[in-house]
Design a protein that fits this description.
The complex is a heterotrimer of chains A (about 230), B (about 80) and C (about 120).
Chain A lengths: L1 H18 L13 H13 L4 H9 L1 H21 L16 H23 L8 H19 L6 H24 L24 H25 L2
Chain B lengths: L1 H20 L3 H21 L3 H25 L6
Chain C lengths: L1 H25 L3 H22 L24 H31 L4 H6 L3
Helix pairs in contact in C: 1-2, 2-3
The chains are: A mainly alpha (about 230), B mainly alpha (about 80), C mainly alpha (about 120).
Chain lengths: ~230, ~80, ~120
């Protein structure tokens, strides 16, 4: 009964979508704000990556909301799973030789790669969220090899909180100095395709990258250890 | 070029349909991971390299890891 | 062939949305429902990016200084989809933690059996 009803609802939704698809042409977007961002993006922000300048400069407040949602989800997960079930102290067999050797070789390379991606966010495809996810996968590798002894709880807490504070402080300094609105660009713009260019965009992406990386690592640690 | 894109999309839809019919939850998670990976390739064909990187690292690696950890804490087979 | 070139991305994206909705409505194992949510998320992101595509365009990055800005795809949907992907993974993590706690309390993950045990 439930199956038949849900299939009928889905057929109605499908017909409604198909009948309105003719008004969305494929390959001819008629946008005005996209053209404005592409034409004026280089002079106003100084970043070579237009998507980065849209995410951090033109719509920086949305990025602050997204960081808040990620922070709330990590707090919610940490407060729902409360009791330690001593999962890591069960009699599990130690990791094999391939895993230990691979972890020792690959870990600095993965961390370096993640840091490269979020530092060069304004010059090439990349940014804070992608680099943060790569750093979190490096911590997943540590957890699979050493079963919870490789995670420093105090260090990750301090990194996450201070990175979030740095993001908000940069926005508030832009309110006081510069153009007098939140998250305005008050540092000099420099030359195009240079590493130290585009104002506060690299600093914001470094803060976001460290915050997202330590947050996702803490989520994985909580899900493995507690119950 | 269109042939390659069409084949990839058909494969993505087959993997999504297979996620309905698997009874072992680990197989269903691997099918959903395959959907995410082919979507990352399609994002590259649509000239969006930032989004392709984000989908490949977050959707195909971290989501699969979180699902497998959650399946380990609960049961493995759907009744 | 013309029909295929124009609409193949839309068919793929809407196919994923319909399959994701089907899993959420029909299945009664909690982890399967959450897998359906993840597929639904991927379908919506694919649709948003395929709306902003320009035929024979390039990526919106000025890696060399002689690229002309008239031939680039739309950068605004890409920024929005970047936000949407991260929010999707945050919601998935919270939903799975609730599923783990529910299994510890009730002993089963079947939604019909959990609905029967009131209080």
């Amino acid at each position: 009964m439930r199956v038949i009803l849900s299939i009928l609802v889905l057929i109605v939704i499908c017909l409604g979508i198909v009948s309105s698809l003719h008004r969305i042409p494929f390959g001819n977007p008629e946008t005005k704000i996209g053209k404005y961002c592409i034409n004026k993006g280089r002079e106003e922000t100084g970043a070579a990556n237009i998507v980065t300048s849209v995410v951090v400069n033109y719509r920086g407040f949305d990025t602050l909301g997204e960081v808040t949602i990620l922070f709330l989800a990590a707090i919610g997960l940490g407060s729902i799973l409360t009791s330690m079930s001593k999962w890591s102290q069960r009699k599990t067999e130690p990791a094999s030789l391939i895993l230990k050797t691979g972890c020792r070789f690959l870990l600095p390379l993965i961390l370096l790669f993640g840091a490269y991606i979020f530092i060069h966010g304004h010059l090439s495809p990349g940014g804070g969220f992608q680099g943060g996810a790569i750093i979190a996968s490096a911590f997943l590798l540590i957890y699979l090899t050493f079963h919870g002894k490789g995670m420093n709880e105090t260090g990750s807490k301090v990194t996450e909180s201070s990175s979030g504070l740095i993001f908000i402080l940069l926005g508030l300094i832009g309110l006081a100095v510069g153009n007098h609105y939140f998250l305005s660009n008050f540092l000099p713009k420099g030359q195009l395709n240079d590493l130290f260019s585009a104002g506060i965009i690299p600093l914001i992406y470094i803060a976001i990258g460290l915050k997202v990386g330590s947050e996702l690592a803490k989520v994985i640690y909580n899900l493995m250890e507690k119950s | 070029m269109i042939i390659v894109v069409s084949l990839l999309i058909v494969f993505m839809l087959i993997a999504a349909i297979a996620a309905i019919f698997f009874r072992d939850l680990l197989n269903a998670v691997i099918a959903a991971c395959m959907v995410s990976l082919i979507a990352a390739i399609l994002f590259y064909f649509l000239h969006a390299p930032d989004v392709a990187m984000a989908e490949a690292s977050i959707g195909a690696a971290l989501v699969a890891a979180i699902f497998i950890i959650a399946i380990r804490r609960t049961q493995r087979h759907e009744e | 062939m013309e029909f295929l070139a124009d609409y193949i991305y839309y068919i793929g994206a809407f196919g994923l949305i319909i399959i994701g909705l089907l899993i959420v409505l029909v299945k009664h194992n909690l982890i399967k429902v959450i897998i359906g949510l993840s597929i639904l998320d991927t379908g919506i992101n694919l649709f948003l990016i395929s709306v902003g595509y320009l035929k024979n365009g390039t990526a919106p990055i000025f890696s060399r200084t002689d690229l002309e800005p008239g031939n680039m795809v739309d950068p605004v949907p890409q920024a929005l989809v970047l936000t949407a992907i991260v929010i999707g993974v945050a919601i998935l993590a919270l939903a799975l933690s609730l599923a783990v706690k529910l299994y510890k309390h009730y002993g089963t993950l079947d939604l019909r059996k959990i609905k029967e045990q009131r209080w």
